[in-house]
Known about the structure:
Blueprint: E1 23-24, E2 30-34, H1 39-44, H2 51-63, E3 68-72, E4 79-82, E5 85-88, H3 93-110, E6 114-117, H4 120-127, H5 136-139, E7 144-146, E8 149-151, H6 158-161, H7 166-183, E9 190-193, H8 197-209, E10 213-219, E11 226-232, E12 237-242, E13 245-246, E14 249-250, H9 258-271, E15 276-278, H10 281-291, E16 300-301, H11 302-309, H12 323-330, H13 334-342, H14 357-383
Parallel strand pairs: 2-3, 2-6, 9-12, 10-15, 15-16
Antiparallel strand pairs: 1-3, 4-5, 7-8, 10-11, 11-12, 13-14
Bound molecules: iron/sulfur cluster (SF4).
Amino acid sequence: MLKNNGCIYCSLYKTRTNIVNGEGGDSPDFLFVGEAPGKEEDKLGRPFVGESGKILRWIIRNSGIRNVRLTNIVRCRPTIIEDGRNANRTPTSDEILACSQHLLNEIDKVKPKIIIPTGRIPLSFFLKRKPESIKITEERRNVFYWNNIPVLPTWHPAYILRGNTGALEEIIDDIKYADIILNKSISKEEIYLISDPKSLRFLFDRIENAEIFFADLETKGYEGEIVGTSFSWKENTGVYVPIKTWNGVSHQNFWNNEEFVIDRLKKIISDKYSSIIWHNAKYDTKVLNIYWNIPLGKCNDTRLLWSCMYDTKMSGEPAFTSLDYLINKFFPYWGKYKSEVQSRFDDSVKDYSKLPLNILWKYGAMDALVGYKLYFHLINILKNDENFIYGFKGK
Length: 395
Ligand code: SF4
């Protein structure tokens, strides 16, 4: 930590009251890097304690992340005389260059897992680009890497104070996205095609013993024959079980004893009916009833939960609670599988049997994985919101 008389690398030392060092975890998951101290920070010697800094601290507290550190790219307040008073100004490139050594030392010492530059000035440092060439609107949701550390930019909270109120929600989104990158990176996602009896037995054991699990059907057109099923019974895992056909070709003997597989699946679904989360129970249970003669029962449904939460912004865009919004923001990797499948469909008939197995199984397994996570996400929001009067089954 620099002492107040500890640095004279640039001329800002002449006007500072305090050097503003980083504050927070010594081994943080998230390092927020701002531009420079303002009046309040200079007075107190602490980062992000002025008006906009307090907003950022509030956002961080309410976004659910922990183990955070706050710092700035420049540690003394840059000022300019306006109307006879000292006002804040953007640090010059020379000041940034001079002070960056302190930031590099700090990063080297605390080794953050993710860096979140707030605004284009700190982002320009990590991207080694001119600030004028950077627009946060375009760079948000991109993951950059700086010395192997993920860098995810967001707005500076002062942007909200300048009248851009929508940026508040966007900063929250960006922080949640950073949390996903940190904790639920795609490398941790595990998806499997169940294509041999040994794996199938393993799957049956797992879902028979699961307290709650996700299941989804892929069918031959709307309300058509069941082509395959996908399951998830634990975080970050999804599997797909092919049943009958794919790519328009019949593979009746895929399992040698297809009836055995269907009978076991029927039994599991019937026995564990109330423990299953469906993405769209209204559709899937109807199909099960028609083709596998499974009686309808009470079950969990992500679409039903979503309908309890759905709201639309005044602009007509999906709101924070819409299903599309949640999937795209929280599980962005899923979009790649979804768009691959959608590009192959005639919109009127979603016949999954026409898809090549190598596309279908990944899509099905990812669907299960996302559905499982989404259910817990939705239900946790609903459980904590008194405004929702719907009764729903779940943990
Ligand atoms: S801004 Fe940084 S480099 Fe300049 S005097 Fe302050 S601590 Fe030193």
